[in-house]
Design a protein that fits this description.
Elements: E1 2-7, E2 11-17, E3 32-37, H1 44-49, H2 52-59, E4 67-72, H3 76-87, E5 95-97, E6 103-104, E7 107-109, H4 119-131, E8 137-142, E9 145-151, E10 156-164, H5 166-176, H6 197-220, E11 224-228, H7 232-235, E12 243-245, H8 249-258
Parallel strand pairs: 1-4, 4-5, 7-10, 8-11, 11-12
Antiparallel strand pairs: 1-2, 2-3, 6-7, 8-9, 9-10
Helix pairs in contact: 4-8, 5-6
Organism: Massilia forsythiae
Pfam families: Pan_kinase
InterPro entries: ATPase_NBD, Type_III_PanK
Length: 266
Amino acid sequence: MLLLVDAGNTRVKWAIAHEIAGAGTAPGDWIAHGAVLHADVKRLPALWAAHLPAHAASAGAGAAPVRAIVANVAGAAMRAELDSLLAALAPPLRPEWFVSQPELGGLRNRYREPAQLGADRFAAALGARALAPDKALVVATCGTATTVDAVGADGEFLGGMILPGLGMMLSALARGTAQLPQVTAHGDRAPAFADNTRDAILSGCLSAQAGAIERACAAHGAELCLLSGGAAGHVAPLLSAPHWLLDNLVLVGLHAAAAAPELRTC
C-alpha cells in the first residue's frame, strides 16, 4: 500500500492507494484522499492513520509495508515538517522524496538540466501520460503558479511555461494599482467584455490563463489538454481545445511512478 503526498505552495494533497503491480489497480484509484492548507498540516497524521491501520488489518499479516512517496515544492521547512509527521505514524514511515530524472515510466525528460524540472511538473506529466498514453498532450496545472507543459505522443517531455496563477494575478492588480479592488474568482462566468471593473479584472485574468493554455495547445498540436489545480475549474470553461478537468494529477503521477523499477528518490 502507498501513501502519496503532493506538497504544493498552498496546500498539501494526499492519497492512499494500492500498489499498481499485481493488484488490478490503475493510477488514480484511491482508497482515500484529501488536502489541507499549510496552516493545517499537523492534522495529516490523524487523517492518514484513520485509513492506514484499517487497511493494514484487512490485508493480513503478510501485507507489504506501506511506502510514502512525496513530491515537495514548498521548501525545506515543509520537507522537515512532513518528515516529522510521517515519523509520528505507527509504524513510522520514511519518505521517498520524488525528484525529476532523465527518464521514468516511459517519459523522457528533455529539460536542459533534467534535475531542475520541478518535481510536481514531472509527476503531473507522468500522470497525464498514464491516463492518456500515446497522445500529444498539454498538461496545465492552475495553482499558486500556473504551469503549462508539453508531452509528445512518443513520451518526450518537451518543456513548458510558468506564469502567475489566477489568484496571484488578481492580487497583483490590487496591490500594484491605486484604484483597482481585490477580486476573487467566483462561480459566475465573467463576460469577455465586462461592464464593471470587478468583472473586467476577472475576465482579463481568466483570459490570460486560458490564452496561455490555448497558445500551448496550438503550438504543440495537442490532441488533449489535461487540466488540474485549484483554479482549473474557473479556467476550463474558457478553453476551446479538447480538455479533461482532473483532480490530483500530481498524485496520479506519483502512483504511476511507484510502479516504475527505475524510480529514483532521495
